Prior knowledge:
With 141 residues, the chain is an alpha/beta fold. The protein has helices at residues 23-34, 41-49, 53-60, 62-75, 94-103, 113-120, 134-140, and strands at 2-3, 6-7, 12-16, 38-40, 83-85, 104-108. It has one domain (2-140): P-loop containing nucleotide triphosphate hydrolases (Rossmann fold, 3-Layer(aba) Sandwich), CATH 3.40.50. It has seven helices and six strands; from the N terminus they run E-E-E-H-E-H-H-H-E-H-E-H-H. A four-stranded parallel sheet has the order 4-5-3-6. A two-stranded antiparallel sheet has the order 1-2. The longest helix has 14 residues, at 62-75.
Amino acid sequence: MELLGVSSRAKSIVLIGMMGAGKTSVGQCLHQRTELPLVDTDEIVTASFGMSVSEIFAKFGEEKFRETETTVLRGLSPDRPSIMVTGGGIVLREQNIDLLKRLGIIVWLDAGEETLFERATRERNRPLLETENPRKTFSRV
């Protein structure tokens, strides 16, 4: 079966990039255009905890969140093509990069630092930016 040139043997399209790069927006657009399932690793992680990313960070810490991201990636099948949206920090673990490569074609979304910061701070739901100086923190991330 082919949908807009995407065969049933196609790999997933895996979107990576910093927070604010547009992974969610591009993922939703690709999902609509290809009719491939949309998989969001942050949504899977939050569903497993039954709480938001910010709540997970506050209660369990970033390390536990990252461990769960890796567990989620291990559970995804390369035999089920999808549009995959990832969290901005998923590539911080080398093992995650290997898992992402196994799952599909990786597309890195990028923008200028000012644009990324403006987008990332539109909503106050970025635990890594919940600091005294979010701008300085963002420049380090």
